[in-house]
Amino acid sequence: MAPKRMPKVTSLSASASNGSSASSSRSRSSNPFGPVDPSTYHDFDESMQDGVELEEKGERFQFGPKAQRFYVQAGTLYTRAAQLAGANVERRADAVYNASRIHFLLASQFALPPENMQSFVEAVESAQQAVQLAAPVSNAGSAEVGLPNPFALDAMTHLATCLQTLAEVVEELGWPSGLHAPSLSTQGTRSAPSPSLLWSEALKVFQQVADGQYTILQDQRTDAAASDEEAPSAATPSTGIEEDEEDLRESTGEDAVYGYTSSLVTPASLMETFLSMMACYTSLIDASATLDGVQMLNSAAQQIYSKAEALASEFQLTGALPATTNDAAQASSEEAAIWGEMQRSSLTLRVAVVCKAIVLASDVAHISAEVEALMQTVNDWAARLIATPTSAEIVSGRRDAKVAELCDVGEAGQNICRASLRLKPTGGGAAAVWSLATSSTKLFSQALAALDTSAAGGGSAAVLGQANTSTPTSRARCRILLALASMSIFRSHPAFEAAGIAGARGTRTKLLDNARLYARKAVTEIGLGWLLRIAPAQAPKSVIIPPSGGWESLSLESEATLHLLRALLVRNNVLGAADRKAVNESQVELDSLVLHIRHLRKRPVQVGSSNDAASIELAHWLYTQSVKSFVDDIVDDNGRDIVESEIACWDTLLSDHSPC
Questions:
Q1: Quick one: where's region Disordered (predicted)?
Q2: Residue 305 above 50 pLDDT?
Q3: What sign results for the dihedral spanned by CA atoms 272, 278, 281, 285?
Q4: Is the peptide bond prior to 182 cis by the omega test (within 30 degrees of 0)?
Q5: For residues 581 and 325, what is the distance between their CA atoms, to the nearest angstrom?
């Protein structure tokens, strides 16, 4: 799940509105792109306001070195503001919260290892400080003394999201040597935390947020009911946030307040918290080493889903009621969409439980019934999606939500198919796996078509095969193409043809040709079209310029390259001696890609603003260590006996005598 973008603390001060701080800031430097010296700031309001302005400049650029520079400068001013806050706890909480958001944004969208890990830790520690500084309740001394502080809820949501994302990065990269660990309530010492420990910590915080959000929702309903009794024609009930901010002004005795324009607590925001918890439980299940652990986590996750189901029923989040205004129609659509996302999250968790049980259980006979029921659920869902024209969703402005649904259900089908093949099905069982795999392929194809950059509403286009063309849309298309390549390789397994399935007979070579084409398109989507050309004998001298998007985008380049290598390797192995010309051409293509990878290992990755800031260790991780991790993932996903012949090829390719 993509991390939520938390709202920033902005100036509510009268002095901000008269522009005094802005003019003072401009007097420091006439160059709006020049460096910012935080030591020249001696006023909290001025430091906070200029930080907000710099952050908004970064938002306008979105990505690239200019955006990163503005964000870094904003972060330094927020940190400076925290120092200038003095004994004012509310101000210091605002400043460190903003600083934490900047650390998280830099870590997730700009920085590369190991700097991104350091930024994630700084984001966690700043968020922890903001939570500690935040008042636990609002309206002290009133009848609403028990209501959670909206700022505290947002700070805690941000903290939990930082922990959750850090866990995902640690799972992929490990914990860097020498990096100090944040303090965790579930860990007594500051030793390097495991991903599971970080997910558990995130879950604990998300649970506190959910409890607070539910308390506020119930209070809103009570107020609404009381208002209806007193004045049936009254307007929409207040959320209490406006009163909170007015009380804050009165309590501080100031006209200028760096208080907080907080996120509205709505049923949809509580559902988002439940979604984050479901994602953490799914990750913990994937990392679990025992069946008892899987069952315990599954039981806890089902309780969260039951709460979400009750919430959807209580607040009618299914969108069944007709909307009377355009705003209400949009809200109804968003609420229905988030409930749909929760249903898919539950499906993903069920698939994770079954897949893990197949891996851990010594006797899988009792799992077969659950596998069959789950396959039927995914099949029915896929059938409904395939029958619905995607173009209609694009016209209605729900393209992103539709693509997410197609990919989520497609991935669920992909994973349950892999798990089912481990049970060595025959006859009708094998045919059912083949049918679901075919449906999942159609879902991914439908999602790819929805992101067609040449079609209206299909997203931003990239110049394929050229450098620096990695965009959010092109990366999404790349991932879908990689899923299609994997599904083609899966469907080419000889077990389907041996089972006598009509659609599988005589299609192995064609499916592997498709896998190759999908993988070639995937690398081209993100500007790696040069990998398809014959590799030069000598490695280029230039450094690797990473794409926009930080580590996630750079690691996708490595992942796409290895998927292409896999498609060529499996295809080359299956071709055998059937067509000598095709075999020779395939071998030349494979050897060229292997040589490209050897060259990439020798080219440092630029990690700063100049070529001097480059890391050969990062290149080694991307194209040496990650190759072994990629092969391990193939075995984990499919089972060694299912991909035994493929693994033998990888072993040969990765041996000391191999050019790779």
A1: 1-44, 220-252
A2: yes
A3: negative
A4: no
A5: 66
Extract the tokens encoding 284: 């913990």
Rounded Cα gap, residues 75 and 107, in angstroms: 12
Say whether both 352 and 416 belong to one domain.
no
What pLDDT, in 10s, does the model give residues 54-85?
A: 999 999 988 888 899 999 999 999 999 999 99
* Residues 67 and 166 grouped into a single domain: yes
Q: How far is CA 185 from CA 85, 163, 196, 413, in A?
A: 27, 12, 14, 37
CA distance 598 to 575: 25
Rounded CA-CA distance 171/205 in Å is 20
Query: What integer is the mean pLDDT of 607-620?
Result: 77
Q: Which of 50-59, 569-578, 622-631 has the highest mean pLDDT?
A: 50-59
Indicate whether 552 and 579 sit together in one domain.
Answer: yes
* Average pLDDT, integer, range 432-456: 89
If you average pLDDT over each of 250-254, 255-259, 315-319, which comes out highest?
Answer: 315-319
Q: Can you tell me the distance from the alpha carbon of 95 to that of 260, in angstroms, rounded to the nearest whole number?
A: 11
Q: How far is CA 2 from CA 108, 284, 556, in A?
A: 10, 17, 16
* Residue 416 near residue 355 (C-beta atoms within 8 A): yes
Q: In whole angstroms, give the CA distance from residue 153 to residue 275.
A: 16
Q: Are 637 and 575 in contact (CB under 8 A)?
A: no
Q: Side chain identity at 307, as an amino acid letter? A: K
Q: Which amino acid is at 641?
A: D
What is the DSSP annotation of 560-602?
HHHHHHHHHHHHHHHHTTS-HHHHHHHHHHHHHHHHHHHHHHH
Judgement on whether residues 313 and 377 belong to the same structural domain of the protein: no
Per 3-state DSSP, the chain is made up of helix, strand and coil in percentages (nearest 5) of 70, 0, 30
Q: How would residue 578 be classed by pLDDT, with cut points 50, 70 and 90?
A: low
On whether residue 391 sits in a domain, the answer given is yes
Residue 254 and residue 299 in one domain? no
- Clarify whether residues 333 and 391 are in a common domain: no
Look at 335 and 276; give whichever has higher pLDDT: 276
Tens of pLDDT, residues 188-221: 667 889 999 999 999 999 999 999 999 999 888 8
Q: How many domains does the chain have?
A: 4
Is pLDDT above 60 for 251? no
Radius of gyration (C-alpha) of the chain in whole angstroms:
27
Q: Which alpha helices (DSSP H) does 451-499 contain, by range?
A: 472-491, 494-498
Over 114-150, what HEC string results? CHHHHHHHHHHHHHHHHHHHCCCECCCCCCCCCCECH
Domain region containing 372: 364-443
pTM for the predicted model, two decimal places: 0.87
Residue 309: predicted pLDDT = 93
Q: What is the 3-state secondary structure (H, E, C) of 278-290?
A: HHHHHHHHHHCCC
The confidence band for 185, taking pLDDT boundaries of 50, 70 and 90, is confident
Q: Is there a domain that residue 2 lies in?
A: no
Q: What was the pLDDT predicted at 207?
A: 96
Identify the H or E element spanning 296: helix 291-314
HSE-up of 628 (CA within 13 Å, CB side)? 7
Task: Give which of 130, 190, 203, 154 is closest to 5, Cα–Cα.
Answer: 154
Q: Are strands 614-615 and 605-606 parallel, antiparallel or unpaired?
A: antiparallel
Report how far residue 417's alpha carbon sits from residue 358's, in angstroms, rounded to the nearest whole number.
12
